[in-house]
Amino acid sequence: MQDKDPLAHRLSCLKITLSLLAIWFMVSFGAGILLRDWLDVNFPSVGSAPFGFWMAQQGSIIGFILILISYVYLMNRLDRKHGYSEER
């Protein structure tokens, strides 16, 4: 199905972007700063580092890379759905 409705495409794009930004905020700020002490107590250490410290240093970067991959996949799927795909 390829409907060229620019408003629907833009609203879907904003929905995806804001959802991924909220996940990024929860992973980086929440797990890395707000919940760091709780994560240190309730989760096992990663190597020699407490889990909260690891999430603040490495986990947020890994989360960000996963969000980027998800963004590419979701936006390509959205573009194909609305007929804006660059594939021929």
Structural notes for this entry:
This protein has about 90 residues and is mostly helical. It has a domain at about 25-80. Helices cover about 75% and strands about 0% of the residues. The chain is built from 3 helices and no strands. It has helices spanning about 5-35, 35-40, 50-80. Helix 1 (about 5-35) runs antiparallel to helix 3 (about 50-80) and helix 2 crosses helix 3. The mean pLDDT is about 90.
Which whole number gives the mean pLDDT? Answer: 88
Number of helical segments with 4 or more residues: 3
Query: Which runs of at least 5 residues are low in confidence (pLDDT < 50)?
Result: none
Helix content: over 70%
Strand tally is: 0
CA radius of gyration: 18 Å
Describe the largest sheet: none
Structural class: mainly alpha
Which percent band covers the strand fraction?
A: under 5%
**Distance N to C terminus:** 15 Å
Q: What is the 3D form?
A: elongated
Please summarize what this structure is:
The chain has 3 helices and no strands. The chain is mostly helical.
